[in-house]
Amino acid sequence: MAFLDFLFRKKENSVLGVDVGSSSLKVVQLRKEGGKAVLETYGELALGPYAGGDIGQATNLSPEQITEALKDLLRESKVTATNCGVSVPFSRSLLTLVELPYRKDPQEQKTVVELEARKYVPVPVSEVQLDWFVVPKANPQEEKGERKTVDVLIVAVHNDELALLQSVIAGAKLSSSFYEIEIFSTIRAVVDEPVKPVMVIDIGAGSTKIYVVEHGVVALSHSLNAGSQDITHAISVSGGMSISSAEAMKKEKGMNDGESSKVVFARIFSEARRVLIQYETAHRKSVSSIVLTGGGGVTKSLGSYAKDFFSIDVRIADPFEKTAYPAFMRSVLEEIGPEFAVAVGLALRELEER
To answer: Which domains does the chain show, CATH number per domain?
Structure first.
């Protein structure tokens, strides 16, 4: 979903994806060469220290603090591109799939959607940027006969959130061509199945996003108030160590740190299984696979644990697979890939729109 597109931008060969998360900033710079997306540079910077806290902890920084952190990251990562796409946090947006009366006339349909959207947006419509998308029927046979309803994906982002992001991007001397809710960026980077339903479990610092994607559209979404900082805290308590040491152990050992992290992951996966059953019951179809993404301790060992838990195909997100890079970087990019799904997805869209 695009908001506040800029009409005039400098022409550059390289583009940038900027992921503004609660615990860290991530950037990915790509260029197109021979029809392929080529990875030029990437980087991540923890925001915890900017708030006087620990690495891996969710923060609530001012626009000025985020701007300074982003400038530091751009410098350290040797970013040269200025044109970018920027992520909007899922927690600061509204996303809902609704069934509405169908109108043949596009203008009438637009009026129906905008009137109905008021029922789902908890604040005055004047306070948000509103976008919507008519979901095509999966089976063309369903289009036959007199169509009475249409499925519409309604998206709203509060003006205050967009203003904050615009301030950060301008302060870092970047030019944003679009702002996109992070789950759409993730889908572009890690979901390749064009037809069958796929569940994405995105483990962030303070929360976990669980959603089902079908035909490229979010059919069901859910957020759980548990994430990687809960895993770090559990390791810290059980091991009698500092938060920073626990964060380092989580990244180094993943699920092999003992039982402490399994308790948190079990809670996350139990909720995801509930959402999965809810979807399959309502839609009378099976979820074909699960993709694990996010920076919250998503490792190969977690993938093995998840396969046993769900008993269906589970894979770890590998967004860099959609880019070209030197072979010697393969193992590193595979390991950090889940953390960079949003930034890669943003940069890929920026390339597509060239």
So the answer is: 14-91+160-352 (3.30.420.40), 92-159 (3.30.1490.300)
